């Protein structure tokens, strides 16, 4: 009878440890391989109508910092551009992404529901909004979206995205230091590339163990694809929520500033215009409160002095640079805002979509 | 049980296996298991219950041993020492309130000393009284304790009763009853502990139980690797392992390590990933198509298998490090060609328990009624057994439906087997293979559809899921 070779415990443990170390550091060697672009979306599962974002398991969604994975999961990534498609990309914050709205109720969804023509083609809008307010975050997404052959980019923004001090503090920006530095160099942005807010990636963070959270997020994103495909749900829609504040504090403070001059990141806006010359810039609608202290502040975000100064600066800049610009700050009545001074109800989004659609139809005229 | 608890359990088992010999191995396992009863118990909204429920577990253990052991066994020096040791560990856990800066041994800070003393005295007096009663001839104490255990089990498993119990205890503590929930009384591992105790009590009644020391008995009931999710071992088999000389060698370490790795992978990689997309109450409503409803139903079927069998692998691997070979609980159940074989390979130790202590005695009793036809006896036997297994998981309509689903399934399969055996003879090997594959497919799908009742909390939701599965909603 043949004797089974005896297995030595020490040998097994040693080999296991060695393999683990090798496997762990092998990730350093393949850091350039873009496997985060591999995705079940747009093949096994339909692409997402908006970027993954969410903090609760009930939303069948998650937030991650990996832009490649985010784009790979987006419907835009799998959409072959038809000859008669007029491709419109919508960039912006949570109001564009559509907090508390189903994908069909968002601005992109509403534009697609009643197809309109622009330049003799049918408009197809893609929601590239992401729920943090920062021009640099928008620029990062815009830069990544450059390859998708947009006929028109619509950048919806608001004053809160402009303060220079805020540009790098958004987690998605801070955790994409390499991309941000590249943008700083390429477009001569004024932000400090050595700003400590930009998360440094050490060698260890590129190993398997160091990247375990990112890899787990990537796997979870793929699994949630099944739930996205089966339910069409990508966020929680609570029946009750706290409505946007209308009784405001008697404070004129805006990020501790006394004037906006030299404190707003217009350089980022310039960079965006350089990436997409076919840009329509929109000052997005906001809640204009008539509650307590509304003579001092428009809403939770803005004291009147700051917002008025911002509108004036933006209008001047747009005129000076010959940008396509729409100031829709007061388009939507106060009752059509939900849980924030910039989040719209479906009816509010419809008003906005109507106005944007009209602008799009004028594009080639 | 999370990764921290598993890591500590594995380290503890390694320590026992590597260092403790003879009686010291049992003693150390006992101390660690008693500590684990407290440590594993999660937080409960009822104040100090995370201390009292484990203490009650230990009281049940001591009481059961006292009334099932031979007349003067409790006076033996070894057993008295064990009793003192258990009480000593309980006292240390209680005193940790004063000795340790934070609640390390329990989920929250143990109760103050005076209530501890008072309630301990009450428990001690009740145990002593029942023990005295059990010494009388033809005493019903054993039956009484079995009934008591089953009543507690029913109370814990019936949401309405659990909620009432929570209201009662909140009222007793002069607390608001507004937040009282059925889930307030989460008594960790009690389903398994109760079944182990009932097995010992019944075996004592039928004279089949060999003599066990208190240390062996208590370690058997609250053995830390199998405390949370089984398997349900047999006391006499477990004691044999404890009595064997054991020195942790490389063969045991390797096989235990392999088992642990497989278990960890099954539970924390496969099951936890599938849990994200497995059928639940919300998805029952939200899923929009037949195809995806099948996917989430299958995901649940695999999730529950990998979760449960993963935990079993972890328990078996951990126990092996300490020299205990726990029984297998799963044997590729989804690859079985009929339902009877499925139930012989799914949660094996529970099925064997039910067979030994319910199905066989119940069938013997039924056979006394000679006028009852064979098929009726079979139907009643299968239905009541599966109903019982369903109720063990929880006294809810859906668990009843799940039990009936399998009960009828087993009955129909049994009748079909008898019918087909007499009429069809498949001799071609290819046909046999095709038949086997078809049977596996059918059995798996029958089981997967049964999980629809198991996974959801109401028959209405189950009906919605079935409608979607068969495209008729």
Shape descriptor of chain B reads globular
SSE order of chain A, as H and E? HHHEHHEEHEHHHHEHEH
Q: Could you tell me how far the N terminus lies from the C terminus of chain A, measured between alpha carbons in angstroms?
A: 90 Å
Poorly predicted tracts of residues of chain A: none
Number of helices of chain A: 12
Helical content band of chain A = 25-40%
Note the total helix count of chain B: 19
Number of domains of chain B: 2
Helix content of chain B: over 70%
**CATH architecture descriptor of chain A:** 3-Layer(aba) Sandwich
Which assembly state applies to the chains in this document?
A: heterodimer
Across the major sheet of chain A, the strand order is 2-3-1-4-5-6
Query: Number of DSSP strands of chain B?
Result: 0
- For the largest interface in this structure, which chains are involved and how many residues does each contribute? A-B, 18 and 18 residues
Give the N-terminus to C-terminus distance of chain B in angstroms: 39 Å
Global mean pLDDT of chain A: 92
Estimate the mean pLDDT confidence of chain B: 93
Polypeptide structure, described:
The complex is a heterodimer of chains A (365) and B (473). With 365 residues, chain A is α/β, with parallel strands linked by helices. Chain A has a single domain, classed as SGNH hydrolase (Rossmann fold). Chain A has 12 helices and 6 strands. Chain A has helices at residues 9-29, 67-73, 75-78, 94-97, 107-113, 135-145, 171-174, 177-187, 212-231, 266-275, 304-321, 346-361; strands at 85-92, 117-118, 121-129, 152-157, 279-283, 324-327. Chain A has a 6-stranded mixed sheet with strand order 2-3-1-4-5-6. In chain A, helix 5 crosses helix 12 (346-361) and helix 6 packs parallel to helix 10 (266-275). Chain A starts with 8 loop residues before the first helix and ends with a helix. In chain A, 40% of the residues are buried. The model of chain A has no long low-confidence stretch (mean pLDDT 92). Chain B folds into 2 domains: 22-241, no CATH class; 333-469, no CATH class. Helix content of chain B is 72%, strand content 0%. Chain B is an all-alpha fold. The radius of gyration of chain B is 24 Å and the shape is globular. In chain B, helix 1 (3-19) runs parallel beside helix 13 (290-321) and helix 11 (250-275) packs antiparallel against helix 13 (290-321). Chain A binds chain B through residues 7-10, 12, 57-58, 219-220, 223-224, 226-227, 229-233, and chain B through 250, 253-254, 257, 273, 276-277, 282-283, 286-289, 292-293, 295-296, 299.
């Amino acid at each position: 009878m043949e004797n089974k070779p005896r297995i030595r415990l020490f040998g097994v443990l040693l080999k296991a440890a060695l393999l683990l170390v090798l496997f762990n550091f092998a990730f350093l060697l393949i850091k350039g391989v873009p496997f985060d672009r591999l995705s079940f979306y747009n093949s096994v599962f339909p692409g997402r109508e908006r970027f993954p974002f969410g903090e609760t398991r009930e939303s069948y969604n998650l937030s991650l910092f990996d832009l490649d994975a985010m784009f790979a999961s987006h419907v835009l990534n799998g959409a072959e551009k038809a000859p008669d498609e007029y491709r419109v990309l919508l960039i912006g914050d949570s109001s564009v992404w559509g907090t508390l709205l189903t994908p069909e109720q968002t601005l992109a969804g509403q534009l697609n529901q009643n197809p309109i023509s622009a330049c003799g083609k049918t408009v197809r809008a893609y929601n590239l909004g992401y729920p943090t307010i920062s021009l640099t975050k928008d620029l990062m997404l815009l830069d990544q979206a450059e390859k998708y052959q947009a006929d028109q980019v619509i950048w919806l923004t608001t004053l809160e995205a402009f303060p220079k001090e805020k540009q790098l503090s958004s987690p998605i920006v801070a955790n994409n230091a390499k991309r941000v530095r590249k943008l700083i160099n390429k477009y001569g942005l004024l932000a400090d590339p050595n700003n400590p807010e930009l998360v440094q990636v050490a060698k260890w963070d590129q190993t398997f163990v160091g990247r375990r959270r990112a890899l787990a997020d990537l796997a979870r994103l793929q699994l949630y694809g099944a739930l996205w495909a089966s339910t069409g749900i990508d966020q929680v829609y609570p029946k009750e929520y706290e409505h946007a504040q209308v009784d405001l504090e008697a404070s004129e403070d805006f990020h501790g500033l006394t004037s906006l001059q030299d404190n707003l990141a217009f350089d980022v806006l310039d960079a965006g215009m350089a990436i997409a010359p076919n840009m329509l810039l929109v000052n997005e609608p906001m809640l204009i409160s008539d509650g307590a202290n509304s003579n001092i502040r428009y809403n939770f975000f803005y004291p009147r002095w700051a917002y008025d100064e911002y509108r004036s600066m933006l209008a001047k800049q747009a005129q000076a640079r010959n940008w396509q610009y729409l100031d829709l700050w007061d388009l939507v009545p106060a009752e059509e805002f939900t849980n924030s001074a910039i989040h719209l109800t479906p009816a509010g989004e419809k008003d906005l979509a109507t106005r944007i659609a009209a602008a799009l139809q004028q594009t080639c005229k | 049980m999370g990764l921290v608890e598993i890591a500590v359990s594995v380290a503890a088992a390694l320590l026992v296996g590597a260092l403790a010999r003879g009686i010291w191995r049992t003693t150390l396992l006992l101390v660690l298991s008693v500590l684990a009863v407290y440590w594993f118990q999660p937080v409960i909204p009822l104040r100090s219950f995370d201390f009292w429920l484990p203490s009650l577990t230990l009281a049940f253990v001591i009481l059961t041993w006292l009334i099932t052991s031979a007349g003067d066994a409790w006076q033996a020096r070894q057993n008295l020492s064990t009793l003192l040791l258990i009480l000593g560990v309980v006292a240390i856990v209680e005193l940790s309130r004063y000795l340790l800066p934070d609640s390390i041994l329990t989920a929250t800070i143990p109760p103050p000393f005076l209530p501890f003393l008072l309630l301990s005295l009450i428990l001690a007096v009740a145990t002593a009284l029942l023990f005295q009663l059990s010494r009388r001839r033809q005493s019903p104490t054993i039956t009484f304790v079995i009934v008591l255990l089953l009543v507690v089990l029913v109370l814990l498993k019936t949401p309405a009763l659990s909620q009432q119990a929570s209201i009662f205890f909140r009222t007793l503590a002069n607390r608001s009853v507004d937040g009282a929930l059925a889930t307030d009384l989460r008594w960790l591992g009690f389903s398994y502990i109760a079944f182990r105790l009932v097995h010992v009590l019944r075996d004592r009644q039928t004279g089949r139980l060999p003599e066990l020391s208190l240390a062996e008995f208590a370690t058997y009931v609250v053995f830390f690797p199998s405390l949370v999710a089984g398997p349900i071992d047999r006391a006499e088999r477990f004691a044999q392992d404890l009595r064997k000389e054991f020195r942790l060698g490389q063969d045991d370490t390797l096989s235990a390590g392999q088992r642990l790795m497989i278990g960890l992978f099954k539970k924390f990689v496969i099951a936890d990933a599938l849990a994200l997309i497995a059928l639940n109450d919300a998805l029952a409503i939200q899923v929009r198509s037949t195809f995806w409803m099948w996917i989430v139903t299958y995901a649940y079927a695999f999730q529950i298998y990998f979760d449960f069998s993963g935990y079993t692998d972890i328990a078996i691997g951990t126990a092996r490090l300490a020299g205990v070979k726990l029984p297998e609980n799963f044997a590729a159940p989804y690859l079985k060609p009929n339902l009877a074989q499925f139930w012989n390979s799914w949660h094996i130790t529970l099925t064997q328990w039910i067979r030994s202590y319910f199905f066989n005695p119940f069938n013997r009793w039924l056979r006394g009624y000679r006028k009852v036809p064979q098929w009726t006896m079979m139907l009643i036997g299968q239905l009541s057994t599966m109903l019982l297994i369903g109720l063990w998981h929880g006294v809810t309509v859906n668990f009843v439906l799940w039990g009936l689903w399998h009960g009828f399934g087993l009955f129909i399969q049994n009748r079909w087997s008898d019918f087909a055996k007499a009429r069809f003879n498949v001799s071609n090997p290819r046909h046999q293979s095709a038949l086997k594959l078809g049977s596996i497919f059918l059995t798996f799908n029958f089981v997967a559809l049964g999980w629809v009742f198991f996974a959801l909390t109401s028959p209405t939701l189950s009906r919605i899921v079935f409608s979607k599965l068969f495209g008729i909603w």
